[in-house]
Amino acid sequence: xxxxxxxxxxxxxxxxxxxxxxxxxxxxxxxxxxxxxxxxxxxxxxxxxxxxxxxxxxxxxxxxxxxxxxxxxxxxxxxxxxxxxxxxxxxxxxxxxxxxxxxxxxxxxxxxxxxxxxxxxxxxxxxxxxxxxxxxxxxxxxxxxxxxxxxxxxxxxxxxxxxxxxxxxx
Amino acid sequence: xxxxxxxxxxxxxxxxxxxxxxxxxxxxxxxxxxxxxxxxxxxxxxxxxxxxxxxxxxxxxxxxxxxxxxxxxxxxxxxxxxxxxxxxxxxxxxxxxxxxxxxxxxxxxxxxxxxxxxxxxxxxxxxxxxxxxxxxxxxxxxxxxxxxxxxxxxxxxxxxxxxxxxxxxxxxxxxxxxxxxxxxxxxxxxxxxxxxxxxxxxxxxxxxxxxxxxxxxxxxxxxxxxxxxxxxxxxxxxxxxxxxxxxxxxxxxxxxxxxxxxxxxxxxxxxxxxxxxxxxxxxxxxxxxxxxxxxxxxxxxxxxxxxxxxxxxxxxxxxxxxxxxxxxxxxxxxxxxxxxxxxxxxxxxxxxxxxxxxxxxxxxxxxxxxxxxxxxxxxxxxxxxxxxxxxxxxxxxxxxxxxxxxxxxxxxxxxxxxxxxxxxxxxxxx
Lengths: 170, 430
What we know:
The complex is a heterodimer of chains A (170) and B (430).
Chain A: H1 3-9, H2 18-34, H3 38-42, E1 45-53, E2 68-70, H4 72-82, E3 95-109, E4 112-125, E5 128-131, E6 134-141, E7 148-156
Parallel strand pairs in A: 1-7
Antiparallel strand pairs in A: 1-2, 3-4, 4-5, 4-6, 6-7
Chain B: E1 18-21, E2 26-30, H1 37-48, E3 53-57, E4 66-72, E5 75-81, E6 87-91, E7 106-108, E8 111-113, E9 120-122, H2 138-142, E10 153-157, E11 160-164, H3 172-176, H4 179-187, E12 194-205, H5 209-216, H6 222-236, E13 248-253, E14 256-262, H7 278-305, E15 306-312, E16 316-320, E17 324-333, E18 336-346, H8 351-364, H9 372-385, E19 394-396, H10 413-426
Antiparallel strand pairs in B: 1-2, 2-19, 3-11, 4-5, 4-7, 5-6, 8-9, 10-11, 12-18, 13-14, 14-15, 15-16, 16-17, 17-18
């Protein structure tokens, strides 16, 4: 464990500067996605992490049908798939820009921060711009170096999926 | 291409848009059928106003007074159960001035009340407001002219409810024809009953609705389009190449068709794959044995092992594959459709199996799955490609025509069934 990680043990959500560091982390994530550095993006996740996009009105992937409910292995495979030319929906690759705002730390316990933020990624391909929007809910483990995402749940603020597909990581 | 091509500049009738030349093993569909708003208008009248259309599943309105609102065939409908448990389908429009009466997606209510002027209705559709004397005559209270309008026909088969806007349509039972056998293979998976799981997925595809009807029963595209999905199965140890003999394709009558084949994937009912782990093996085996006990070796294993993709004309898909998806899709325009997709499972399903079912569903299906998005891409690419129709006017769906004996499941006979029915309906011959 390095010095940075030691510091993280005593984190509290009111720590001055913690939000700025979390924002930096989220901006890094957004940048990796924008640049299609998707394998590096996957490396931000802790082993055993989950990645989910629930339907707009229910929350348990064991009992209701989500849009995405990946465990760590399937998330890895999602990334592997997206690196292939045969992931036809992203060939040629779309262009994307991820916007994040309203970053809030909703709790910190044992160095793991619960973070929420609003998101709007834009995806452009063949003259069509897809817009998604909603709120990300993260569990970020700040005790490791680098920090790791334990879970990411992207709750759409849309009543249906107007862009039709979810092939980029929002 | 030496097929006689009508001059693309000339008007083409719907009858001319489907060309079957059996001696020469050629079957072609004009791309105009996918792009022309006038064709869509005619489809609304000849197909969506006359065919049986899927409305919903009994489980979505399990309790008395449950309701669901849904767009079906260009209408806005209320699908509900009244206080006595009877099922209704109402046009969701106030008899007074037309506002949609129910605005929630689902719920449970003892009555419906239009927010515009406050007209109220019992959940059996009867006008229930009590205005002071002098406001309305007795026809409003007793004559039915202030009641919610019922959809002309509402019938069900094995908990699948359908509506028809044509009062004179043949009974649903006759309409479904051979499709009933395949609905049975799904409905029989539950000891008690099947249910829709959660709320389903809704998404847009910028393509003509018929492209999804074709795609949903098209095995030919499987490997070219979904190689990344099969790579995934391989990577995680979920690909099983052993299995039942492939069964091929069946025409079920009235434009319905099904393909049935050995499953390369696991099925919660009931085909175990190694990636699920040893702990699930016993559970899945128990389900499998239960099916064999209930239905005998042949039918039991058929339910457990094989996968089936079925289209019930015009736009109900029941695909019993790595999970069961029930899917409908309606045109918003010639080049755009809204898709509604649900997961179906046994109501009494073990919690772990249910989890597996949903996990399995999402690995292939839906806008975030490893396969559906690539289908969407293919459909949208077709739609875009049809911009070239003035010079390149025809789709070819001739695969398997020279074959002697029954068609293979990756032939295109199932699409030809769809298109023959489409032509019949569009020309008023059906």
